[in-house]
Write the structure tokens for this entry.
Amino acid sequence: MPNEHRLEEEFLSQEAERRISEKLDGAEKIEIDIQTDLLKIVQGQADGVSVAGFGLAIKEDIRIQEIKLQTDTININPLSALFGQIELNEPVNATARIILTEVDINRALASDFVLSQMQNFDLDVDGEIVSFEAQEIQIFLPGDGKIECRGRVLLKEMGNTRPLAYTALLRPRTDSQSAMLESFNCTEGEGISIELATAFMQKAKELMNLPYLKWEDMAFSIKDIKVEIGSLILLVQTQVKQIPSSITELSP
């Protein structure tokens, strides 16, 4: 019987790998393990799903070097599962370890998809709304737990619009320490006022202290960040209500 269960798992896992590979723009390697058996499938259940992917091209100019993900027990649509397609009947919790390279991060930040997702960032500065419109951002990973950001924004305040370029060096929040801003320098423009800097730091603190972030039908929180030379390693916990349409509708 265990061998029969293993054959069922292998069939479903291989079919899921094939379907997901078709949705991706490219993948060096992808492995999916659906932990279940035929009886559980008929009942709409699976003990869990694990995913290991390497060199995944999700959209044009968006690439993940490595992801390893494991879900808890899930309730699924049994008919779709028989054809290797996972549709969730209830939210599922998952833990993921994701590796992003510096090159891939900057290619994504310059992509039309990411730029289209960036919205104006508004701050209330002593009762006046000040807006930032992102023009460019680059990330550098020198190691030693540090992230260097270089960017350019359009700053809109008091009816005027002016360019502002900056460099910042920070240490991200981890499970053992708070986020630290080591330096911030304006490299173009007239700089920013103390009041604006204070409002910006307060907003950044609020965002970093959010218990989770949301994207479509996914809620996720970053539990730990490790910065190595040229790469970023994220430990993420998620709750997925349904596979996001942005992923399932990648192919033309």
